Prior knowledge:
By secondary structure, the chain is α/β, with parallel strands linked by helices. It is 41% helix and 19% strand. The protein contains ten helices and eleven strands. Strands 4, 5, 6, 7, 8, 9, 10 and 11 form an eight-stranded mixed sheet that branches. Strands 1-2-3 form a three-stranded antiparallel sheet. α5 runs parallel beside α9 (284-299). The protein is elongated. The chain starts with a helix and ends with a strand. The model is unreliable at 88-134 (pLDDT under 50).
Amino acid sequence: MNTKEKIQKYIERNNITGGLKYLLSILKGEDDQLYDEVLIVQNNYKRAVRNFNNRILDMSDLQKEEARTASALLDYADDIMDMNLTPGTGSTTTTTTVSNEGAGNYIIQGANTNGGDIIIGATPSETKKPEEKKNEKRRILFFGSNPQSTGKLQLEEEFRRVSEKLQHGVDENKFALFQKWAVQPNELIEAILEYKPNIIHFSGHGTRGKAFKPEDSGLLMSSSDGGTRLVNTSTLSQMFELFRDDPEIQIDTVILNACYSENQAKAICKFVPYVIGMNNAINDNDALDFSTGFYLSLSHGKTIDLAYRTGKLQIQLEDGDQKIVAMHQQKNC
Length: 333
């Protein structure tokens, strides 16, 4: 049985992970470029399974990712056959089976690259992954920026509300909240590398720029000399593209709680499953109310989509303008 036939068998058995491991075992030490490409495909697939498990993606999204990965497996199998490469001694195979565990949960056995099981529909704490600690938390990084030359915002109050809602949810140990104040542009990457967040929340000022030019729009941050620096849409997009294929940093949601930030949200959503931005100026109270509703819902185990809708409803309940808030999903970008 040649390489492509073996890959087809993996796909027929719904063992995408096994097929990826099989290709990596062949390419390791033989073709570094192809090995790295397959590794990226593997990381993207693992992320999709993880996001489905965390209820960020639905079944149709996972099936689309499986189809894309299966197609890539067959293409790489053709490349390997053209190179006349054969499996290394370290090649292993696993069998993927699906069983119903009741209460709407399904276990995909062997779907984890380390041979563990992934519980579909369960909370992250219920997921059995050998490489993760049982008490692993969803990591939230709160960036607060209110340069001296800009209008005063209630950032501390917003952070207090976010922290309070997360602490009084159904499982206060499910989240880890980190904060970075008066953030400067050159500190963004360092903070993401340090805290490895799943959710990034930026609260501050945004601008649509002169004559609404995209290159002049972005987020306003503090500069080292105490002034104000613009981080434009293109730069922000490149930053999230940088982390897209990093297996150690799984950013699935970005919230830009700042005026005129929808342009940035549209650009970033190419690399992050969920991005929330503002399509106009948003007043301070509406920004506070959105965060309150969003994290209240999230702390009770709701999906990102439902948390987003709860945040908008919270604005509406306080007679604010909820139409300003817009969410963009990677699958539609």
